[in-house]
Structures are given as structure tokens and as C-alpha cells.
UniProtKB/TrEMBL annotation:
This is Uncharacterized protein.
Length: 259
């Protein structure tokens, strides 16, 4: 693999972009969703992969916004010049974190095929030869490794949040910030994503595709079971606790179909 040629221009600088400035290619926005959605959409376009289960699961996710977390999402399309006001809902790449490296290792192969790391300067030092990553401007802050699922998906209009993703200020005094991905780097990453999509669509034998699909379905079923048992547990508790549950559901702490 070639060495990473990425660079860190202005990597420490924080910035807040006025909300009046229209979002565009490379901006990172708040969008509800699950990283399962782009994969399910992939099946939807392929009659040999689509099943009643995949369609039902996608319908559920897309019908009930509360099943989806608000998460950062990278805008992967350039804004049309004649559309400079709101109401533009372009395709995105969802970002995600996982609890730990063992959770990442146990992910279905389909996720891993499209995941790219978001590397901070510190992580970059640990694995400088790993080309499969992107950088944000400024450098991404957070205690967990951030990932991006490099598979395009256009979320329903009501899944869009009200602004760009914002980091909290940190303990060493960096103020709030919005993030973006450098346009040149994002183009390069899109080229890589296209190669990955081709590898899956064209080069992967059907037998292996079916195996990967079924592995993905097993993962979804397990997650559904875990979430159902959470809700079941809550529903057996007192009214007071149920009030708390409603508050939790509305703030997305209960339903996290993926992490
Ligand atoms: Zn790099």
C-alpha cells in the first residue's frame, strides 16, 4: 500500500461556520441514520440480494426517525450553483464509532469493506502506512476512533438535523469547532470508495456475496434483539421509569441500532 500523502494544513485551527453559509461538498453535517442504511440500499438495487427482511428493515429505519441516532455525515456531492438556499439533501457518508477494537473486529465483512478510519495526528503516528483513512479539518476530536462508511446514501428529508456537526470544546482549551474534509482529499477518498464498490459489485462471486449478506443479516437480527430486550426491560418497570424511558428514547439513548 502506498504511504499516506495526507497533510495537516491548519489542522489545529478551530472554526465555527455561520449557519447562513450553505453546506457543500466536504462539510460534515448532523444527520439521523444508521450505517446499516447504505448497505440495505445497496441490496435494494440488486434483485438477487434483496429479501423481504432487508426491505422491511430498511422501511423500519426510514419510517421511524427515533430508531436512528443523530450522527456526523460527510456531504459527498457538490452543491448545484442554482441552489444556494436550504432544502438541498445530497448523498452523504455516515460516520460511526465502535465501543472498542473487539467490537470493530466482530463487525460483518460488508461494513469493514466500506469503512475508512478518520485519523488524528496521534493515530497517524501509530500507523503511518495505512492508506485507508481520511483526515478532517481541523483534526477530529474525541476519545474513540472515528470511522466513515464510504458508501453513498441519500437520507429522507426529515433525517437532516439543523446544522453542521459541532465538537465540544476540549480540556486543553480548544473552543467549539465545525469540521470539513479537504475537497482534494475527499475526491481521492471517493475514488477509493468507487474501487471498493466495484470490487464488491463486479469482482465478488455471488456465493461470497450471499454469505456476506447473511452474515450482515445475522448482525442486524442480534442488534434488534438487544434493542428489543432493552425496551422490554424498560416496559416492565414503574411509571416513573417509563417516563424516563420516553425521555431517553426521544434523546436517542435507547435505540442505537448500530454504534
Ligand atoms: Zn493520513
Amino acid at each position: 500500500m502506498p504511504l499516506c500523502k495526507h497533510f495537516f494544513p491548519d489542522s489545529q485551527a478551530s472554526r465555527l461556520i455561520p449557519s447562513s453559509q450553505p453546506i457543500d461538498f466536504g462539510d460534515i453535517y448532523v444527520v439521523r441514520g444508521s450505517i446499516a442504511l447504505p448497505i440495505l440500499e445497496l441490496f435494494k438495487g440488486d434483485q438477487t440480494m434483496k429479501t423481504a427482511f432487508s426491505q422491511k428493515t430498511q422501511d423500519d429505519y426510514e419510517s421511524y426517525p427515533h430508531l436512528n441516532k443523530a450522527r456526523p455525515a460527510i456531504i459527498v456531492k457538490t452543491r448545484p450553483k442554482d441552489n444556494l438556499i436550504g432544502g438541498w439533501h445530497p448523498p452523504i457518508w455516515y460516520m460511526a464509532t465502535f465501543q472498542n477494537t473487539s467490537e470493530y473486529r466482530s463487525l460483518p465483512r460488508l461494513y469493514k469493506h466500506f469503512l475508512m478510519a478518520v485519523n488524528s495526528r496521534a493515530l497517524h503516528r501509530q500507523s503511518p502506512n495505512e492508506d485507508r483513512h481520511i483526515h478532517t479539518l481541523p483534526e477530529w476530536r474525541g476519545s474513540s476512533q472515528q470511522w466513515v462508511l464510504a458508501l453513498e446514501y441519500t437520507p429522507p428529508a426529515n433525517y437532516w438535523g439543523s446544522g453542521r456537526w459541532e465538537s465540544p470544546g476540549d480540556e486543553i482549551g480548544d473552543p467549539l469547532t465545525h469540521y470539513a474534509v479537504d475537497a482534494g482529499l475527499l475526491q481521492k477518498a471517493r475514488g477509493y470508495a468507487e474501487e471498493q464498490l466495484n470490487k464488491y459489485m463486479v469482482d465478488t462471486p455471488r456465493r461470497l456475496k450471499l454469505e456476506m449478506r447473511d452474515e450482515f443479516f445475522r448482525h442486524l437480527r442480534e442488534r434488534k434483539k438487544e434493542n428489543a430486550s432493552h425496551l422490554n426491560h424498560f416496559s416492565q418497570t414503574s411509571d416513573l421509569f417509563n417516563c424516563m424511558r420516553i425521555r431517553l428514547v426521544s434523546s436517542n439513548k435507547v435505540w442505537q441500532m448500530d454504534t
